[in-house]
Amino acid sequence: xxxxxxxxxxxxxxxxxxxxxxxxxxxxxxxxxxxxxxxxxxxxxxxxxxxxxxxxxxxxxxxxxxxxxxxxxxxxxxxxxxxxxxxxxxxxxxxxxxxxxxxxxxxxxxxxxxxxxxxxxxxxxxxxxxxxxxxxxxxxxxxxxxxxxxxxxxxxxxxxxxxxxxxxxxxxxxxxxxxxxxxxxxxxxxxxxxxxxxxxxxxxxxxxxxxxxxxxxxxxxxxxxxxxxxxxxxxxxxxxxxxxxxxxxxxxxxxxxxxxxxxxxxxxxxxxxxxxxxxxxxxxxxxxxxxxxxxxxxxxxxxxxxxxxxxxxxxxxxxxxxxxxxxxxxxxxxxxxxxxxxxxxxxxxx
Length: 350
What we know:
The protein is an alpha+beta fold. It has helices spanning 8-58, 70-82, 212-222, 242-256, 266-272, and strands spanning 85-87, 91-93, 102-103, 109-116, 124-125, 136-137, 139-152, 159-161, 176-180, 191-196, 233-236, 280-286, 296-307, 320-325, 327-328, 331-333, 343-348.
């Protein structure tokens, strides 16, 4: 009988080869996971930079026509992107080209594209994929933001100018003498009423106050703490002795601003960047004009008003001398405001 040949030694050699191949494959897969993780982190960082840049650019709403001021938007978006970092070999500031990486799909939208790619000399380098000949990866992302007409959710004053046909002008050089309207006369541009927002709002600095005087003073200085919307109806306060409260509170706002020059319009105030915004008050626009006692007034829109001079300087009949403007505030989007100046809020739409 021929003895059986022992092949166990040869089989052990094949098993070692299988183990080696398995280990090499596992190392390659782990290495690939590391590079994919870096890619995911980089994309997330670039997306945050794109979002920040788009929102910054969308904030450049023209106070005159409500459209985005493209030159200013490019500058601000580029700066906002540079304040973020994303991985290349290491974390580096995000740099975008203000002309090629920023576009304006509409007059109210801005699109920002950010990248780590070979074409711009800043591709994301790999760690282990280099062993496969993949030394870098291209990563692109973008964000689009829009300035949308808004119903404000904070800091709205009770000063309620009456709606006029075509809306108030926002051009530099135009101005209105705001005065509390007196009953029995035809309303004219600049007449306003003082709304009583009531005591139901439990948010903001005026929550918990009572009495028309303290509430009115707080609303003018700090604004209403809850959301308002077109169609809301409030009771007018009786003007009478409230004009003194109004004038004093508005003068306090004026004195808190860091730019109290009286020879400039809002466009100059904005461009110089010396003020802190206290001279700007947001207000509802109402559709009624009747201040003989307490009557209801319906909100039909919102606007912002820039004080051009010290409140009360024009005497009892002209309490505030100023300019209506388009302005950006927090709030809920509303795409159907009436003609004239508007309040806007910012939204990422893509």
